[in-house]
Amino acid sequence: MPKSYAEKIAQVKVLIDGLRESKDALPAGITEEAIDELENLRNEVEKLNSEQESLKAELKKKTEEATQKQK
User: Fold this and answer.
1) Where do the DSSP E strands lie in 1-71?
2) Domain of life here (predicted)?
């Protein structure tokens, strides 16, 4: 069963938390800056997802209004 977008965002948050807790044991190349960049990207995606959900709700409302006017 495919995971929802919100579930994927939550998994990325868990991943980031794990990276922060284990940053001393991580291989070279996974720097604090890389973790910060990943977290910034997750925050941006979460914001965009919220905006999209709001737009979907607004579209549903407008569709219902249009349907009622057609009756």
Assistant:
1) none
2) Bacteria
SS3 call for 60: helix
CA end-to-end distance (rounded Å), the chain: 38
Is the separation of the CB atoms in 42 and 17 below 8 Å? no
pTM for the whole thing? 0.76
Which residue shows structure tokens 């990943």?
38
**pLDDT tens digits, 9-56:** 999 999 999 999 988 888 887 889 999 999 999 999 999 999 999 999
What is the token pair recorded at 70? 């057609």
* Residue 13: φ, ψ to 5°: -65, -45
Question: Which two three-digit tokens encode residue 25?
Answer: 């044991």
C-alpha closest to that of 68 among 22, 60, 48: 60
